[in-house]
Recover the amino acids of this structure.
């Protein structure tokens, strides 16, 4: 019985061979999707048989990916604010 990893491989091949080749998607789009597939979908669903991939199970994975991305954005924003405050602080102390 086939597993989700097989479907992911087929999707990557189709994306590359058809969508990128036909210029309906850019190669950069592919590079955006690959880390999500590698880091989130394959570990969470890849070894499941296709019949085991239920909607609730897939919804949980999508929810966890979205929460991860939100946490990443918050950390980046906080880091950006902190570095901006550091620059402002150093300007104040040098005046």
């Amino acid at each position: 019985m086939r597993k989700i990893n097989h479907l992911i491989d087929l999707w990557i091949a189709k994306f590359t061979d058809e969508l990128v080749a036909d210029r309906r998607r850019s190669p950069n789009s592919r590079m955006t999707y690959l880390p999500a597939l590698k880091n989130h979908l394959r570990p969470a669903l890849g070894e499941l048989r296709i019949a085991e991939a239920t909607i609730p199970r897939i919804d949980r994975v999508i929810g966890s990916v979205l929460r991860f991305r939100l946490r990443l954005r918050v950390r980046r924003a906080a880091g950006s604010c902190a570095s901006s405050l550091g620059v402002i602080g150093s300007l104040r102390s040098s005046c």
In short: The CA atoms of residues 23 and 93 lie 53 Å apart. Residues 55-94 form the longest helix (40 residues).
